[in-house]
């Protein structure tokens, strides 16, 4: 069995601190909060591979877009608000972010997802059946979180009993 890897934008320590501060007001929710190094913006979802050539291809994308401004405006349930399994921050998807996403899909020989790419940052996971025990069935918190992406990362996902843990395998400057 190969590695379970994916591509993501890392977030700054400053944004992580803003998120942790925001989460303190929601500790009563029946969710598993992602912490520290596990917070990221997924660009290409996980896949299984033994193919190290893909990693070399990604390294050739150095400088593909330049830095990318990230602006998050709200925190909500996702991906489907009626049957959610995540709490995530949503933001504006810039042309530069779409350009990077497209370049990564092409470099990996992947068909683009038919759904439009939407900037989001997963903050917490939960089982859909636990949603019914939430006191409030809506979450629409305004935030003004800003960050700057200067690189993307190749990460490996390690599935553990308490949830996934992520390890950075390579960092590629934008």
UniProtKB/TrEMBL annotation:
Its EC number is 3.1.4.58. It comes from the Bacteria. Pfam families: 2_5_RNA_ligase2. Keywords: Hydrolase, Ligase. GO terms for molecular function: 2',3'-cyclic-nucleotide 3'-phosphodiesterase activity; ligase activity; RNA 2',3'-cyclic 3'-phosphodiesterase activity. It is an enzyme of class 3 (hydrolase). It catalyses: a 3'-end 2',3'-cyclophospho-ribonucleotide-RNA + H2O = a 3'-end 2'-phospho-ribonucleotide-RNA + H(+). A motif (HXTX 1) lies at residues 40-43. Coiled coil: none annotated. InterPro entries: Cyclic_Pdiesterase, RNA_CPDase. A motif (HXTX 2) lies at residues 120-123. HAMAP family: RNA_CPDase (MF_01940). Hydrolyzes RNA 2',3'-cyclic phosphodiester to an RNA 2'-phosphomonoester. Belongs to the 2H phosphoesterase superfamily. ThpR family. This is RNA 2',3'-cyclic phosphodiesterase. It comes from Candidatus Uhrbacteria bacterium RIFCSPHIGHO2_12_FULL_54_23.
